[in-house]
Structure formats: structure tokens, C-alpha cells
Amino acid sequence: MPDRPEATAPAPETAPAPGAGAGTGPETNGASAPLDPAMPVHDPRPGRVTHTLAAPTRTELADLCRALRVAQPAWERRSPAERADALVAFADALERHGENVLAALAADTGRVVESRLELDITVAALRRWAANAPGLLGAAPERPSEIPWIGIRPAARAYELVGVISPWNSPPLLSFIDAIPALAAGSSVVVKPSEVTPRFVAAVRAAAEEVPALAAVLGLVEGGAGTGAALVASVDLVAFTGSVPTGRTVARAAAERLIPVCLELGGKDPAIVCRDADLDHATSAILWGGTANAGQSCLSIERVYVHADRYAEFVGLLADKAAKVGLAHPDPALGGLGPIIDPDQAGVIQEHLDDAYTQGARAVCGGTLERIDGGTYLRPTVLTGVHHGMRVMTEETFGPILPVMPFATEDEAVALAEDSPYGLSAAVFAADAEAAVALAARLSAGAISINDAALTAVLHEGEKNAFKQSGIGGSRMGPASLARFLRRQSLLVHRGSVEDPWWHRL
Ligand code: NAD
Predict the structure, then answer these.
(1) What are the start-end ranges of the E strands in 308-344?
(2) pTM above 0.85, yes or no
(3) 99 to each of 200, 293, 474, 503, how far by Cα in Å?
(4) Is 264 a catalytic residue?
(5) CB within 6 Å of ligand 1 — which residues?
(6) Which domains does the chain have, with CATH numbers?
(7) How high is the pLDDT of residue 421?
């Protein structure tokens, strides 16, 4: 039985692509105007505009959502294994289209090495979910209840239409980390990435169109805040990744509609280095965790607390290693730190550095934004003389900056790490992994790397929640991720003809 009013649009083979003349509905109240203006999109490497945002009109988005809703029941009726086959076919198509996707991502982000890693992680996630989801979605047998003649048969129904809204720092990874389990669960999905990095949409859509069963339930749209807001107004569940302020706006809009929202927001991840830690190991891990993607990751290490007895040694080692990490310029394929993607973020980084320098911080290495051939770069920056009165210690910087502060006792280290509105992830280093685990248990963060850093960049198997203002909703990682897109049902089956004793006596 259909569980929503009969849809009026005919089921298309594939969902229409907005911007491709899909709109046919009545055009009132600005319905024919794009939901966001044709904003210039800049390429961070030459630092110039090379693309114009093509947001859908209200009518086009409505048509897309309608088509996805029409296709969803058949998608959900397919067996989990059949949906898994479509995910594998999409992974294959993404690999065939890999060079186009990577070229678009290079223009979106200025990154080559990291974009290849991102694509590989996305393809691996498709294959992993295809392998795991059927086992997780298997039908559960009926079990007896406390009432002898009533059995309980557990079932689950997918949310019909899921909206995925993602940020600019890891465009496909942070779109598909939620879209894939939603599709595996049986939902239709609309993905709207950031207006800062929209070019990969066309390349990924071309790959999806090679898998008609999947293209019918997966829409991708370019757009900014206007399109995002219209999407929140159109879907049944929102999976949002982005900043705390936008997350609040999205949560308010979702609350108004009484639809669930999963928020994955900002972070200010601490690393704690205990007195007995292996400093060679810790500095290598923290350097990567704080400067990969030029620090433009929610899970970057953004502040480091080191036992006072090892502070000078730690800073020296970290700075020596940091000075050896070059810029991904002129050849981005050779690795090193790429450009700052969003010009607005470069402004925030500059403000945090200025604030720290004014209050007495010192850059042991790096420390100055550089303009090179139009791009804006920052070499790995190690700051000393920092304290929690500085923005660089308390607000999300999103740059390759490692401010290092000494602590005297573990209690002090925990208090400093906890002095933050964020609780995304963290890292703890100690000679004894179990001692580090015990210290980690005192931290309010969803994923804590022990004797390593920022592991959730590459490892998505462990279930975790975002703590404090870093987000709300179920785990986006591990098997529990699937459950976010399912509504549990209990089919309560009355066996036999016995009359329930609480019925009216007739
Ligand atoms: P942002 O909040 O500015 O934008 C995120 C997305 O929201 C974009 O697609 C944007 O177009 C959309 N949007 C804007 N206004 C909207 C509205 N009113 N309704 C619906 N959608 C709207 O974030 P950003 O600058 O793109 O990304 C950086 C932020 O994302 C950082 O704070 C970072 O920590 C966070 N982030 C979090 C995670 C995580 O997993 N927790 C991962 C990566 C990035």
C-alpha cells in the first residue's frame, strides 16, 4: 500500500537534471527564477573565477524531488542485494569517470593528491556498503511477545526523500558519506554540495546516469543557501554537514517541519601529548592531522597540549618536520599543502594569526599567508606563546596551524581540551596505549585517535556521535549510520482467534 498520496508525475527512467530544462510546473512566486543567483565560482589555484553557479529554479527542484519520490517505492522494494548491485555499478562508473571527476575537483579545491584519496574513499565506501548493507537489512524473524498469542515482527521503512547538504572542504566525500547509506537503506537522495565547490556535480551526475536504477533515485544539484533552504523544505530527512551557524538555521527549519535532521558541524580538535609519549611518532602524526588538506578539515588537530617536561623538545621536533612540508605548487600532483580553497576562510585564518601575534604568540615556522600565482597558501605553522584568550585556541581556524601549549598535570590537560564548545574528535599520545585510552575516556568527543591523529579522515567503521555543538543525530560512521535513514516498525501479529481480554465484552 502506498504510504503517501499518489504522485501525479509519471515515473521517469532517471531523475531530471536541474538546469537542463526540466521545469514544467506552474511558474508563480518566482518559481522560474534560480533559487540562488548565478554566483561566480573561483578556482583556488589561479585564484580566478572559472565557473558560474547554476542553481535550479524552484520548479526544477520541485520536479526533481517529485521524480525522486515517484521512483523511491520501487527502489525500496528492490532487495538490499539488488540495491547493493546498483551501488557497485555506480562505484565502477565513478572509476570510469574518475579523470573527469578529479579534473572538476582540482578546479573546485586546487587539490590533486587529496582529491584522488577522496575519490578512492568514496568508491571504497560504495563497495563497503554494498557488501555490508544486505546483512544489516535482512528481515528479522517474528518473536514472541509477553502476550502469548501476539508476535512481534520487526520491520523498517526508509525515509522516502533524504536531502544531503555538504560543505566545500571535502566535496564528494562529505556528500556521499551520508548519501550512500541512505541509498542502501532504500531512500531517494538529493545532494546539494557547497556553492564554493560545485563543479564535481556534473561529473558525478554523468557517472550516475550510467546506472539508470540509481540515477532514478539520486539527484545532484548545484546551489547555495537558497537552494539548501528550499531542499530542507522539500525532503523528509536532512543530513547536513557544515558550520554551527548554518546548522542552527537548518535545525530550526527542520523543526518547523517536524522532520529529523542529522547535523555534523565544526570542530576544534585537541591533541594531548603525555610526558612519556614517543615524540617522534607524536609529532609526525600531529603534523599530518593538523595540516593535511591544508588544515581545511573539521577533524583537523587545531590545538596541541604537551606535558611541560617535553614541551621544548616537542616544539623543536614538530617545527623541524613542519618546515620540510612544502607547498603543492607549482605541480599539485607532487603533494604538499594546497591553496586555501575559500577566500573567506583565508580572511578568518589571517584574523586568527593577527589576534595571536597581537597577544604575544610566536610562529616557530610558517605563519604568513602567501599569494603565489593567484592562489593563497599557508605553510605548516607552529605557534608558541599561546593561551585560551586567543581565537586560534578557541575558534575553528580551518588552516594548517598548530598552536602548542604546555600543561603540568593530566587534569590540566583535560580541562584545557574540554574548554571548547566543540566535541568532534581528539587525539591522545602516551607510551602506554591503555593509559592513553583512560585519558581519552575523560574527553567529550566522538572519535579519539590513540597514538595517532585524525583517523576518521580515512577510517569510517567506528560508530561515533558528535559531542557538544559539533552536531546532533545518530552515528554517521559504522553500521549504525544506516539506521539514521530507517524508521522502525513493529508488525504486531495476533495469531489465532482468541479474543483479547481487554476488548469490549459484547
Ligand atoms: P556552511 O555552513 O557555510 O555551508 C554548508 C552548506 O550549507 C553549504 O552547502 C551551503 O550552501 C549550505 N547552506 C547555507 N545556508 C543554508 C540554509 N539556510 N539552508 C540550507 N543549507 C544552507 O559551511 P562551509 O563553510 O561550507 O563548511 C565548513 C564548515 O563545515 C566548518 O565549520 C567545518 O568544521 C564543517 N564541517 C564539518 C564536518 C563534520 O563532519 N562534522 C565535516 C566537514 C566540514
Answers:
(1) none
(2) yes
(3) 11, 20, 34, 67
(4) yes
(5) 165-169, 174, 192-195, 224-225, 228-229, 232, 241-243, 246, 249-250, 264-267, 298, 396, 424, 470-471
(6) 55-265+470-490 (3.40.605.10), 269-457 (3.40.309.10)
(7) 98
